Amino acid sequence: MTVSNEELKSNAAEIRRSIIRMVHAAACGHPGGPLGLADIFSVLYFDILNHRPADPLWEDRDRLILSNGHVCAVRYASMALSGYFPVQDLMKFRKFGNPLQGHPSTKYLKGVENSSGSLGQGLSTAVGLALGAKIQQKNYRVYCCISDGECGEGMTWEAATAGAAYRAPVIGFMDYNGIQIDGFTKDVCDLGDLAKKFAAFGWKVHECDGHDTAKIREAFMQASGYVDGPQMILFKTVLGKGVSFMENNPKWHGSPPNTEQMEQALAELNL
Ligand SMILES: Cc1ncc(C[n+]2csc(CCOP(=O)(O)OP(=O)(O)O)c2C)c(N)n1
């Protein structure tokens, strides 16, 4: 049965509320990027990905590589909501010895496809996995979430070169929010026109509003119908989306809300 856009939006709102509660309970972590990615992850986990939450290592599952590991709260919240583990477990986020590490690890949690936190590596992993699937004539797709900040890492462009040279059928997508740890990306180190850059490297590029559920769906559907080479979807997102005082404010890249801020955020997200 096809899931409706309304359902996907409601799941995104639930994912956002979980992110706020998780980062507040941990008293550390990254709320901004995860809130900005919630609409995209709702579409992925509830519509696009061919996966089995009860059987996370199912051989034919689509692979979702998360390169910008610090945004893992959005992945954990999406996994819990889709049935990988109980939603209550989210409150153990970032607690010592818990599977929900502040930067994800395959050692501790099934359904996480790569360990990440050291930025810039995920696109290479995804290109390799997509090539592997192609060589073995497997039908599963390999998706890879990267951030714009990671385009300041040389390894991203090594992956871009290899992906095009070997025509790896990888579907990359970017959290293009214009913000990184030290402020606005254009002020830290201007990355130029990332659409033109990926296109120049030989990637098929799509640009899309990262908060319009119908358009996100369409972008992924279109991308998943193409297998002749690498693709990058540039999702224009707003860091902190849905919480007025967090939106587009670099401070919320990596600061937890206090209790009063959490309550205000939850009130706004319940609207
Ligand atoms: C190799 C590496 N260098 C530096 C860092 C520190 N770091 C953590 S998050 C971050 C900013 C990354 O930018 P982006 O992912 O665009 O930030 P966001 O949009 O989530 O605010 C940096 C530099 C890291 N994790 N890995």
The bound ligands are: thiamine diphosphate
Q: Return the average pLDDT rounded to an integer.
A: 97
CATH homologous superfamily heading = Thiamin diphosphate (ThDP)-binding fold, Pyr/PP domains
Strand order in the largest sheet: 1-2-3-7-6
Question: What CATH architecture label applies?
Answer: 3-Layer(aba) Sandwich
Largest sheet: 5 strands, parallel
Could you explain the architecture of this structure?
With 271 residues, this protein is an alpha/beta fold. It has a single domain, classed as Rossmann fold. Helix content is 41%, strand content 12%. The chain is built from nine helices and seven strands. It has helices spanning 5-26, 32-48, 72-81, 122-135, 154-165, 185-189, 194-200, 213-224, 259-269, and strands spanning 63-66, 142-147, 170-176, 179-180, 183-184, 204-209, 231-236. The strands form two sheets. The protein has a five-stranded parallel β-sheet with strand order 1-2-3-7-6, with helices on both faces. A two-stranded antiparallel sheet has the order 4-5. β6, α8 (213-224) and β7 (231-236) form a beta-alpha-beta unit. It is globular and about 50 Å long. The chain starts with a helix and ends with a helix. 48% of the residues are buried. The mean pLDDT is 97. Bound molecules: thiamine diphosphate. Thiamine diphosphate is lined by residues 32-33, 68, 70-71, 117-120, 147-150, 175, 177, 179-181, 239, 253.
